[in-house]
Amino acid sequence: MSAADPAFRALRRTRQASARLDRKFLLIIPALIVLIGFFVFPYLYMVYMSFMTQTHKAAYISVFTVANYWQVMSDSFTWRVILRTLELGVVTTFVTLVLAYPMAYQLARASSRVKGFLMILVLSPLLVGVVIRTYAWMIILADTGLVNQAMHGLGLGPLHLMYHNTGIIIGLVHIYIPFMVLSLAGPLQSIDPDVERASRSLGASSWSTFWRVTWPLSMPGVVAGTVLIFVLSASSYVIPQLLGGFKVITMPILVVQTVTELFNWPLGSALALLFFALTLVALWAYLKVMNRVMRGLA
């Protein structure tokens, strides 16, 4: 078979393509190892442990039972905690989106010199740890904190912000707003300003231009940012624990308390898996709705 033979050339191209695929597969092996070792295997082990029986002599004993899930599903307190956690995630996501969108728009439309300065301002809070920033909010929002001292100076009554949903939402929004800004800035920057100017030149108002041009084109960033913030806020442990104390219990706090205080690892695993499944269902429904919305706006 000569090199000029079409069959030989086709065989050589097939072998070259196969070699390229083999090299690409080798590149993803480290990511697969990390994914399986730190995500898939722990979740599979948690599923196994959730069907085991509690014992005070060890984490569990290898006796199969579904009593853990029955206890979780039949406990009204658990469902109240789940609803409160999802509510905190939804409210935090909405407030973060409303506050972050103007910031992301200004960042996307700023000149290159100003954009660098704005990017530093957006990223600078990430240089301080979550615990330190949460303690700062405790100083600000406490009953004797800066806010209530200012209210007292104005002759107004105190605001009960600590150990309440309001304080937790404030802390969550402050911690996670940079992630929303970064999620929105990319899609907004990809929108050609000439498209907005063309809309204005055709007689559309600035408000109409935003809702008919800018907002639909930025929907991929909105969806990505809202999913990210909802997942982070719903799974947050430190912020609700410090700002909510023992008065506001969320699912991460309940899981940790079940494991560390009751030493009930199987029940804690069942709680975690139930919340994980409900969160996945909520995200699936949200993405389905948003896909239909984006197709309608296209």
Key attributes of the depicted protein:
about 300 residues; mainly alpha; 13 helices
Structural commentary:
The chain has 298 residues and is mainly alpha-helical. The chain is built from 13 helices and no strands. The chain has helices at residues 6-50, 67-74, 76-109, 112-123, 130-141, 146-153, 165-189, 193-201, 206-217, 219-234, 238-244, 251-260, 265-297. α1 (6-50) packs across α13 (265-297). The longest helix is centred in the first third of the chain and has 45 residues, at 6-50. It is globular and about 75 Å long. It starts with 5 loop residues before the first helix and ends with a helix.
Task: Give a quick summary of the entry.
Helix content is 78%, strand content 0%. It is mainly alpha-helical and 298 residues long.
